[in-house]
Design brief:
With about 350 residues, this protein is mainly beta. Helices cover about 5% and strands about 30% of the residues. The protein contains 4 helices and 23 strands. It has a 16-stranded parallel beta sheet that branches. A 7-stranded parallel beta sheet has the order 4-7-9-11-14-17-20. The protein is globular, with a radius of gyration of 19 Å. The model is unreliable at about 1-20 (pLDDT under 50).
Length: about 350
Protein backbone atom coordinates (compact mmCIF):
# COMPACT_ATOMS: atom_id res chain seq x y z
CA UNK A 1 0.00 0.00 0.00
CA UNK A 2 1.62 3.20 -1.14
CA UNK A 3 0.36 5.36 1.71
CA UNK A 4 2.10 3.26 4.33
CA UNK A 5 0.46 3.17 7.69
CA UNK A 6 3.44 4.22 9.85
CA UNK A 7 1.00 4.92 12.63
CA UNK A 8 2.63 4.50 15.96
CA UNK A 9 0.86 6.50 18.65
CA UNK A 10 2.86 9.54 19.72
CA UNK A 11 1.07 10.23 22.98
CA UNK A 12 -2.44 10.70 24.22
CA UNK A 13 -4.49 13.85 24.11
CA UNK A 14 -7.46 14.84 26.26
CA UNK A 15 -10.93 14.37 24.83
CA UNK A 16 -11.97 17.68 23.26
CA UNK A 17 -15.46 19.08 23.31
CA UNK A 18 -17.37 18.92 20.04
CA UNK A 19 -18.60 21.94 18.13
CA UNK A 20 -21.82 21.79 20.13
CA UNK A 21 -20.01 21.51 23.48
CA UNK A 22 -20.37 17.73 23.60
CA UNK A 23 -17.52 15.64 24.90
CA UNK A 24 -17.24 11.96 23.92
CA UNK A 25 -19.57 9.66 25.80
CA UNK A 26 -16.85 7.01 25.87
CA UNK A 27 -13.10 6.86 25.23
CA UNK A 28 -11.15 4.13 23.45
CA UNK A 29 -7.39 3.78 23.82
CA UNK A 30 -5.16 1.15 22.23
CA UNK A 31 -3.03 0.99 25.38
CA UNK A 32 -6.03 0.16 27.57
CA UNK A 33 -6.15 3.53 29.35
CA UNK A 34 -9.62 4.38 28.06
CA UNK A 35 -13.04 2.94 28.78
CA UNK A 36 -12.32 0.26 26.19
CA UNK A 37 -9.28 -0.86 24.21
CA UNK A 38 -11.23 -2.09 21.17
CA UNK A 39 -13.55 -0.33 18.72
CA UNK A 40 -16.08 -3.17 18.63
CA UNK A 41 -16.32 -3.23 22.43
CA UNK A 42 -17.09 0.48 22.40
CA UNK A 43 -19.81 0.06 19.80
CA UNK A 44 -21.26 -2.84 21.75
CA UNK A 45 -21.49 -0.51 24.75
CA UNK A 46 -23.47 2.12 22.81
CA UNK A 47 -27.21 2.31 23.54
CA UNK A 48 -29.72 0.51 21.35
CA UNK A 49 -32.13 2.77 19.47
CA UNK A 50 -30.39 6.01 20.46
CA UNK A 51 -32.17 9.26 19.65
CA UNK A 52 -29.13 11.49 20.12
CA UNK A 53 -25.55 11.04 18.86
CA UNK A 54 -23.36 8.70 20.90
CA UNK A 55 -19.79 9.92 20.55
CA UNK A 56 -16.87 7.51 20.86
CA UNK A 57 -13.55 9.32 21.16
CA UNK A 58 -10.68 7.25 19.74
CA UNK A 59 -7.19 8.05 21.01
CA UNK A 60 -4.16 7.72 18.69
CA UNK A 61 -3.15 4.16 17.87
CA UNK A 62 -3.84 1.21 15.60
CA UNK A 63 -6.96 -0.86 16.26
CA UNK A 64 -7.00 -4.26 14.56
CA UNK A 65 -10.06 -6.44 14.13
CA UNK A 66 -13.31 -6.46 12.21
CA UNK A 67 -15.89 -3.87 13.29
CA UNK A 68 -19.66 -4.04 12.75
CA UNK A 69 -22.09 -1.21 13.53
CA UNK A 70 -25.49 -2.96 13.66
CA UNK A 71 -28.78 -1.44 12.52
CA UNK A 72 -29.91 -1.38 16.17
CA UNK A 73 -27.17 1.16 16.99
CA UNK A 74 -28.01 4.41 15.15
CA UNK A 75 -26.30 7.79 15.59
CA UNK A 76 -22.87 6.48 16.56
CA UNK A 77 -19.96 8.83 15.93
CA UNK A 78 -16.31 7.71 15.87
CA UNK A 79 -14.10 10.72 16.48
CA UNK A 80 -10.35 10.42 16.06
CA UNK A 81 -8.54 12.37 18.78
CA UNK A 82 -5.20 12.65 17.02
CA UNK A 83 -3.78 15.67 15.26
CA UNK A 84 -4.42 14.16 11.84
CA UNK A 85 -6.39 11.26 10.31
CA UNK A 86 -3.29 9.03 10.13
CA UNK A 87 -2.98 9.04 13.94
CA UNK A 88 -5.96 6.71 14.39
CA UNK A 89 -6.18 3.59 12.22
CA UNK A 90 -9.00 1.03 12.34
CA UNK A 91 -8.12 -1.98 10.20
CA UNK A 92 -8.45 -5.67 9.41
CA UNK A 93 -6.73 -7.88 6.83
CA UNK A 94 -9.11 -10.34 5.19
CA UNK A 95 -10.08 -10.65 1.52
CA UNK A 96 -12.97 -12.21 -0.40
CA UNK A 97 -11.05 -15.49 -0.75
CA UNK A 98 -9.60 -15.63 2.75
CA UNK A 99 -10.69 -18.93 4.38
CA UNK A 100 -13.20 -18.64 7.24
CA UNK A 101 -12.52 -20.59 10.44
CA UNK A 102 -15.71 -22.64 9.99
CA UNK A 103 -15.17 -23.34 6.30
CA UNK A 104 -15.74 -21.44 3.08
CA UNK A 105 -14.45 -17.92 2.44
CA UNK A 106 -15.48 -14.45 3.57
CA UNK A 107 -16.78 -13.08 0.25
CA UNK A 108 -16.57 -9.43 -0.72
CA UNK A 109 -19.03 -8.07 1.86
CA UNK A 110 -17.59 -10.28 4.59
CA UNK A 111 -14.09 -8.99 3.90
CA UNK A 112 -14.97 -5.48 5.13
CA UNK A 113 -12.83 -4.16 7.97
CA UNK A 114 -15.77 -1.98 9.01
CA UNK A 115 -19.44 -2.56 8.19
CA UNK A 116 -21.95 0.21 8.90
CA UNK A 117 -25.63 -0.76 9.16
CA UNK A 118 -26.54 1.88 11.76
CA UNK A 119 -28.28 4.96 10.35
CA UNK A 120 -26.82 8.37 11.12
CA UNK A 121 -23.29 7.02 11.65
CA UNK A 122 -20.47 9.57 11.56
CA UNK A 123 -16.69 9.31 11.51
CA UNK A 124 -14.10 12.06 11.58
CA UNK A 125 -10.32 12.51 11.65
CA UNK A 126 -9.29 8.86 11.34
CA UNK A 127 -8.30 6.11 8.91
CA UNK A 128 -10.10 2.92 7.87
CA UNK A 129 -7.95 0.30 6.14
CA UNK A 130 -7.92 -3.24 4.83
CA UNK A 131 -4.37 -4.52 5.20
CA UNK A 132 -4.75 -7.66 3.07
CA UNK A 133 -1.38 -8.26 1.40
CA UNK A 134 -1.93 -9.52 -2.15
CA UNK A 135 1.75 -10.34 -2.74
CA UNK A 136 1.95 -12.43 0.43
CA UNK A 137 -1.08 -14.54 -0.55
CA UNK A 138 -0.72 -15.68 -4.18
CA UNK A 139 -2.94 -18.67 -3.31
CA UNK A 140 -5.91 -16.30 -2.85
CA UNK A 141 -7.27 -15.30 -6.25
CA UNK A 142 -10.43 -13.48 -5.10
CA UNK A 143 -8.65 -10.40 -3.78
CA UNK A 144 -11.48 -7.98 -3.17
CA UNK A 145 -10.67 -6.53 0.27
CA UNK A 146 -13.07 -3.87 1.53
CA UNK A 147 -12.01 -1.23 4.05
CA UNK A 148 -15.54 0.08 4.69
CA UNK A 149 -18.96 -1.27 3.68
CA UNK A 150 -21.95 1.04 4.25
CA UNK A 151 -25.58 -0.05 3.99
CA UNK A 152 -27.36 2.64 6.03
CA UNK A 153 -28.76 6.12 5.34
CA UNK A 154 -27.55 9.58 6.37
CA UNK A 155 -23.89 8.73 6.95
CA UNK A 156 -21.10 11.31 7.23
CA UNK A 157 -17.34 10.86 6.84
CA UNK A 158 -15.32 14.01 7.53
CA UNK A 159 -11.52 14.07 7.06
CA UNK A 160 -11.34 10.28 6.83
CA UNK A 161 -8.86 8.12 4.91
CA UNK A 162 -9.91 4.85 3.25
CA UNK A 163 -6.98 2.58 2.32
CA UNK A 164 -6.95 -0.74 0.46
CA UNK A 165 -6.38 -2.10 -3.04
CA UNK A 166 -9.35 -3.72 -4.82
CA UNK A 167 -12.84 -2.67 -3.63
CA UNK A 168 -11.70 -0.21 -0.95
CA UNK A 169 -15.00 1.59 -0.33
CA UNK A 170 -18.29 -0.27 -0.82
CA UNK A 171 -21.14 2.26 -0.58
CA UNK A 172 -24.28 0.15 -0.73
CA UNK A 173 -27.83 -0.02 0.67
CA UNK A 174 -29.87 -2.63 2.50
CA UNK A 175 -31.61 -3.77 -0.70
CA UNK A 176 -31.97 -2.84 -4.37
CA UNK A 177 -34.18 0.22 -4.69
CA UNK A 178 -33.56 1.35 -1.09
CA UNK A 179 -32.01 4.81 -0.87
CA UNK A 180 -28.93 5.13 1.33
CA UNK A 181 -27.10 8.47 1.38
CA UNK A 182 -23.45 8.98 2.28
CA UNK A 183 -21.66 12.31 2.51
CA UNK A 184 -17.83 12.37 2.39
CA UNK A 185 -16.05 15.66 2.88
CA UNK A 186 -12.30 16.33 2.73
CA UNK A 187 -11.64 12.59 2.57
CA UNK A 188 -8.91 10.50 0.92
CA UNK A 189 -9.75 7.26 -0.88
CA UNK A 190 -7.01 4.98 -2.24
CA UNK A 191 -7.16 1.78 -4.26
CA UNK A 192 -6.90 0.26 -7.71
CA UNK A 193 -9.71 -1.92 -9.10
CA UNK A 194 -13.33 -0.73 -8.65
CA UNK A 195 -12.25 0.90 -5.41
CA UNK A 196 -15.38 3.04 -5.03
CA UNK A 197 -18.44 0.95 -5.84
CA UNK A 198 -22.03 0.11 -4.96
CA UNK A 199 -25.60 1.35 -5.29
CA UNK A 200 -25.69 4.05 -2.59
CA UNK A 201 -26.09 7.75 -3.22
CA UNK A 202 -22.59 8.87 -2.23
CA UNK A 203 -21.30 12.43 -2.49
CA UNK A 204 -17.55 13.10 -2.45
CA UNK A 205 -17.06 16.77 -1.62
CA UNK A 206 -13.52 18.13 -2.01
CA UNK A 207 -11.96 14.69 -1.66
CA UNK A 208 -8.77 13.21 -3.09
CA UNK A 209 -9.20 9.97 -5.03
CA UNK A 210 -5.87 8.20 -5.55
CA UNK A 211 -5.34 5.28 -7.94
CA UNK A 212 -2.48 2.90 -7.12
CA UNK A 213 -0.08 1.63 -9.78
CA UNK A 214 -0.63 -2.13 -10.16
CA UNK A 215 1.89 -2.42 -12.95
CA UNK A 216 -0.79 -3.75 -15.31
CA UNK A 217 -2.73 -2.47 -18.29
CA UNK A 218 -5.21 -1.18 -17.44
CA UNK A 219 -3.99 -0.23 -13.98
CA UNK A 220 -7.52 -0.18 -12.62
CA UNK A 221 -10.93 1.44 -12.45
CA UNK A 222 -11.89 4.19 -10.01
CA UNK A 223 -15.64 3.55 -9.76
CA UNK A 224 -18.06 0.68 -10.32
CA UNK A 225 -21.54 2.01 -9.54
CA UNK A 226 -24.57 -0.25 -9.44
CA UNK A 227 -27.21 2.45 -8.91
CA UNK A 228 -30.76 1.13 -9.17
CA UNK A 229 -32.73 2.45 -12.12
CA UNK A 230 -35.30 3.96 -9.73
CA UNK A 231 -32.65 6.08 -8.00
CA UNK A 232 -31.79 9.33 -9.82
CA UNK A 233 -28.66 9.84 -7.72
CA UNK A 234 -25.59 7.58 -7.59
CA UNK A 235 -21.96 8.65 -7.12
CA UNK A 236 -21.13 12.36 -7.28
CA UNK A 237 -17.62 13.85 -7.12
CA UNK A 238 -17.63 17.63 -6.68
CA UNK A 239 -14.42 19.71 -6.53
CA UNK A 240 -12.28 16.59 -6.04
CA UNK A 241 -8.75 15.67 -7.15
CA UNK A 242 -8.08 12.44 -9.08
CA UNK A 243 -4.42 11.53 -8.70
CA UNK A 244 -2.16 8.54 -9.33
CA UNK A 245 1.42 7.34 -9.58
CA UNK A 246 0.42 5.11 -12.50
CA UNK A 247 1.61 5.88 -16.04
CA UNK A 248 -0.40 8.25 -18.17
CA UNK A 249 -3.58 6.88 -19.71
CA UNK A 250 -3.67 3.60 -17.77
CA UNK A 251 -6.56 4.10 -15.30
CA UNK A 252 -10.28 4.26 -16.17
CA UNK A 253 -12.79 6.45 -14.37
CA UNK A 254 -15.26 3.63 -14.06
CA UNK A 255 -17.33 0.77 -15.39
CA UNK A 256 -20.97 -0.23 -14.80
CA UNK A 257 -21.42 -3.02 -12.25
CA UNK A 258 -24.53 -5.18 -12.59
CA UNK A 259 -24.58 -7.46 -9.50
CA UNK A 260 -25.86 -10.91 -10.47
CA UNK A 261 -26.43 -9.40 -13.95
CA UNK A 262 -29.24 -7.22 -12.60
CA UNK A 263 -30.53 -5.25 -15.62
CA UNK A 264 -31.93 -2.55 -13.32
CA UNK A 265 -28.49 -1.62 -12.00
CA UNK A 266 -27.91 1.39 -14.22
CA UNK A 267 -24.84 2.80 -12.53
CA UNK A 268 -24.26 6.53 -12.17
CA UNK A 269 -20.97 8.35 -11.72
CA UNK A 270 -20.89 12.14 -12.12
CA UNK A 271 -17.61 14.05 -11.84
CA UNK A 272 -17.83 17.81 -11.83
CA UNK A 273 -15.46 20.73 -11.42
CA UNK A 274 -12.65 18.39 -10.41
CA UNK A 275 -8.96 18.11 -11.26
CA UNK A 276 -8.13 14.95 -13.21
CA UNK A 277 -4.56 13.76 -13.61
CA UNK A 278 -2.83 12.34 -16.69
CA UNK A 279 -3.48 8.73 -15.59
CA UNK A 280 -6.99 9.03 -17.10
CA UNK A 281 -7.09 8.49 -20.91
CA UNK A 282 -9.34 9.92 -23.61
CA UNK A 283 -11.59 6.84 -23.45
CA UNK A 284 -12.16 7.17 -19.70
CA UNK A 285 -14.99 4.67 -19.19
CA UNK A 286 -15.02 0.90 -19.70
CA UNK A 287 -17.49 -1.88 -20.36
CA UNK A 288 -18.02 -4.39 -17.54
CA UNK A 289 -18.27 -7.83 -19.10
CA UNK A 290 -21.15 -7.68 -21.58
CA UNK A 291 -22.52 -4.44 -20.12
CA UNK A 292 -21.49 -1.41 -22.25
CA UNK A 293 -20.48 1.76 -20.48
CA UNK A 294 -22.58 3.85 -22.87
CA UNK A 295 -25.74 2.48 -21.24
CA UNK A 296 -24.68 3.65 -17.78
CA UNK A 297 -25.17 7.15 -16.39
CA UNK A 298 -21.60 8.44 -16.68
CA UNK A 299 -20.97 12.16 -17.08
CA UNK A 300 -18.55 15.01 -16.39
CA UNK A 301 -18.89 18.75 -16.06
CA UNK A 302 -16.26 21.47 -16.24
CA UNK A 303 -13.38 19.30 -15.09
CA UNK A 304 -9.80 20.44 -15.62
CA UNK A 305 -6.25 19.09 -15.56
CA UNK A 306 -4.27 16.94 -18.02
CA UNK A 307 -6.77 14.06 -17.87
CA UNK A 308 -9.89 16.20 -18.22
CA UNK A 309 -10.60 15.93 -21.92
CA UNK A 310 -13.83 16.74 -23.69
CA UNK A 311 -14.60 14.37 -26.55
CA UNK A 312 -17.21 11.99 -27.88
CA UNK A 313 -15.85 9.43 -25.42
CA UNK A 314 -16.42 11.73 -22.44
CA UNK A 315 -20.15 12.54 -21.96
CA UNK A 316 -20.73 15.98 -20.45
CA UNK A 317 -23.65 17.32 -18.43
CA UNK A 318 -25.64 20.12 -19.97
CA UNK A 319 -25.99 23.34 -17.97
CA UNK A 320 -29.51 22.31 -17.03
CA UNK A 321 -28.40 18.85 -15.91
CA UNK A 322 -25.55 20.34 -13.89
CA UNK A 323 -27.98 22.56 -12.01
CA UNK A 324 -29.74 19.46 -10.67
CA UNK A 325 -26.55 17.47 -10.09
CA UNK A 326 -25.26 19.24 -7.00
CA UNK A 327 -24.21 18.12 -3.54
CA UNK A 328 -27.45 19.47 -2.10
CA UNK A 329 -29.68 17.85 -4.73
CA UNK A 330 -28.07 14.42 -4.31
CA UNK A 331 -28.39 14.43 -0.52
CA UNK A 332 -31.67 16.28 0.03
CA UNK A 333 -34.04 13.34 -0.31
CA UNK A 334 -37.63 13.50 0.94
CA UNK A 335 -36.50 14.62 4.42
CA UNK A 336 -34.46 17.63 3.30
CA UNK A 337 -31.19 16.31 4.76
CA UNK A 338 -28.36 18.86 4.91
CA UNK A 339 -25.44 17.24 6.74
CA UNK A 340 -23.03 19.34 8.77
CA UNK A 341 -19.40 18.67 9.55
CA UNK A 342 -18.66 16.41 12.49
Amino acid sequence: MSSGLGIVATGLVPAPASAGGRRPDLLVAADGSGDHSGIQAAIDAAPVGATRPYIIGVRPGTYLGQVIVPSTKPLIELRGLGRRPADVVIADDRANGTPKPGGGTWGTSGSASVTVDGAGFRASNLTFANLFDEAAHPEITNRQAVAVLTRADRLVFDRVRFLANQDTLYVNSSAAGVIARVYLRDCYVEGDVDFIFGRATAVFDRCRVHSLDRGTTPNGYVTAPSTDITNPHGLLFDHCRFTSDAPAGTVLLGRPWHPSNDPNAIGQTVIRQSWIGPHIPDVAWSDFGTWPWEQARFAEYRNYGPGALVSANRPQLTTEQAASSTVEAFLRGSDGWRPERC
